[in-house]
Amino acid sequence: MGLDFIFILKAIIIAVVEGVTEFLPISSTGHMILVGKLIGFYDTPFVKMFQIVIQLGAISAIVVLYWDKIWTMIKLFFKMDKKGLRFWLAIIVATLPAVVFGFLLEDLIEEKLFGFETVIIGLIVGGILLVVVENNFRKKAKTDRTTKEVEEMSYRQALLIGLFQCLAMWPGMSRSSSTIMGGWIAGLSTTVAAEFSFFLGIPIMIGASTLKLAKFDYSSMTSTYWIALLVGFIVSFIVALVVVDGFVSFLKKKPMRVFAVYRIFVGILLSIMILTNVIK
């Protein structure tokens, strides 16, 4: 059987969507579901596995961009240095809520929340929540008491962010948005909240990818699937490399409400399209 180039092209489109949206507070999973449904790349066992793998591709960009910091913290950890210990233990503490809730609710979440309508609701609800939290907590995260380095975080702050990260189990809510909001409420500066969100994505994506890859039935794989998977991983990685640097620069100067407005606008537009049967 020959290669299905249309299928591979659709995979590349989804990979670009993932690379652009993974670290922006607009929900990468939600956008992959929405765009996937619109282009006919949606809701098959391979597509679900593909989405997780290209998320791993995007998160790999963080490892490259922040390698000096990560490697320094690894060395400090094994030297039993306080900063290194606090850095990695904070990530472990923040990861635990998602691990627990993900293990207990994975099947229920996939069954009830991975739908077109639920993603739209998540986009709108998450957008409104982002505006409310930013208006009430972002300015407070600019005081002298603000945590200005990831390795200075307390475990209480890490746990709070980890609990907020669980909101992202609802596609459309956004892991980036949820963890940054949690960071603001916990008293982190915007830059530190974003960076911790990036670092926190590494164990989450590695764990999720490992589970999906272990469960997947590889007897269904074709040459088209293998090429789509490889190209998708590379594309999401490259696009994410470009997007992350620009996003961090944006956060230092601008409020995030523009992303909230975008989320709400897209959610309302898609709702109208469904109600008028433009999308079925």
Automatic annotation (TrEMBL):
Q: What does this protein do?
A: Catalyzes the dephosphorylation of undecaprenyl diphosphate (UPP). Confers resistance to bacitracin.
Keyword tags: Antibiotic resistance, Cell membrane, Cell shape, Cell wall biogenesis/degradation, Hydrolase, Membrane, Peptidoglycan synthesis, Transmembrane, Transmembrane helix
| Extra facts | Bacitracin is thought to be involved in the inhibition of peptidoglycan synthesis by sequestering undecaprenyl diphosphate, thereby reducing the pool of lipid carrier available.
Q: Does the keyword Transferase apply?
A: no
Name the domain of life: Bacteria
So what family is this one in? Belongs to the UppP family.
Q: Where in the cell is it found?
A: Cell membrane
Q: State what protein this is by name.
A: Undecaprenyl-diphosphatase
Q: Name one Pfam family in it.
A: BacA
**GO annotations under biological process?**
cell wall organization; peptidoglycan biosynthetic process; regulation of cell shape; response to antibiotic
Instruction: Name the EC number(s).
Output: 3.6.1.27
Q: Name one GO molecular function term.
A: undecaprenyl-diphosphatase activity
Q: Which reaction does it catalyse?
A: di-trans,octa-cis-undecaprenyl diphosphate + H2O = di-trans,octa-cis-undecaprenyl phosphate + phosphate + H(+)
| Record-level GO cellular component terms | plasma membrane
Bilayer topology term: Multi-pass membrane protein
